[in-house]
Amino acid sequence: MNTTAKLSAYGVALALVAGGAWVAGTAVGPFAGAAGLPGGEDAGHGDAHSGTVAEAAPTDEPGGLASSRGGYTLTPTTTTLTAGTNQPFSFKVLGPDGAPVTGYDVEHEKRMHLIVVRRDTAGFQHIHPELGADGLWTVPLALPQAGSYRVFADFKPTGGSATTLGVDVAAAGEFKPVEHQPSRVANVDGYQVRLDGELTPGRASKVTLTVTKDGRDVTDLQPYLGAYGHLVALRGGDLAYLHVHPDGEPGDGRTKPGPTVTFFAEVPSNDTYRLFLDFQHQGKVRTAEFTVPTTGTPAFSATQNQTPPPPADDGHGGHG
User: Is the entire prediction scored with pTM above 0.70?
Assistant: First the structure.
């Protein structure tokens, strides 16, 4: 994706500006399943067949850009942490009545998904805090280096819509920004993950991730949070957040445990994105990172509130 997200929020040729921030972009669109684009429902952790942009509320603002939305507010107990140390991080989500939310639906085996990443998209973490009876979430958190970090809370309050809120926290010290060059191959712990496919604004695009180890296909990926892979995309302009899941899920009779994991992505505007794939093999979760720019001419204007035509039906059914 050349300069603009749920991934998408969830393409990337990063160019850092002064202070490590990214060039501003436009709204993030949903990631669509193989059989079509998601409907008007709220998202966050969409279903394993198609996934949707986190917090697909009736607004043009993408998920994760605001700390308060739809009556819910993310309130950390502190916004200053110490780099290089493992320390507890806690927060509450206040509901429309101003009281801490204590009821959450389980979405992909967890009631809260917390994404933490520095503003230059270094130090990505996907963690799961524990909820106290008083509505206080707590999780051990280590920020590896100094800088400004974005914390995304991805959740679905009981009786409410799936929502993603974001807040900045800071780790004092000398900030050394990282510039990410375009990359479609990631190497992590002896594994190589290749990303194939193009992201074209305004239309559903097939994105396939292939996992190998020591030159051999990995054909026994293990389910992680109910899927063979989780993809998070952050838009280069503003860290707009997109979380998607692959087309298919373990046990559906058609989805194999590797070596490929397929997503159908739809983004509304040109930009560069950072993509993070979590996958599990031999009992350990690893994260592969990519920097991918969009390609092609947008099929529709990203500033218009319209839905592009869905891809042809492949017989897998629509978005559930």
Answer: yes
